[in-house]
């Protein structure tokens, strides 16, 4: 995996409803929660009809899914968290 993959993965954290729905697991790089895509109940993006997932644990829009091709692990989410927060 690319050295900066935790940075590249960020583009998969918005306008990603179809990708989240295809995922086996999702994770939040803000609160570090991991859950199935069915747990996502709220979506935002006024103009796009709700295409960005909100984390069911913390309500922040920092969710990525396994269909992105990036690992949904504590270590990877932690790297993203350290970079973005």
UniProtKB/TrEMBL annotation:
Superkingdom per UniProt: Bacteria
Protein name (Swiss-Prot/TrEMBL): Cytoplasmic protein
Lineage: Bacteria, Pseudomonadati, Rhodothermota, Rhodothermia, Rhodothermales
């Amino acid at each position: 995996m690319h050295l900066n993959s935790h940075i590249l993965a960020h583009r998969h954290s918005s306008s990603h409803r179809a990708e989240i729905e295809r995922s086996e697991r999702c994770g939040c790089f803000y609160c570090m929660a991991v859950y199935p895509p069915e747990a996502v109940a709220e979506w935002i993006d006024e103009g796009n009809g709700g295409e960005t997932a909100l984390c069911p644990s913390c309500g922040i829009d920092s969710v990525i899914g396994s269909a992105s091709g990036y690992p949904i692990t504590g270590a990877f989410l932690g790297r993203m968290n350290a970079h973005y927060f």
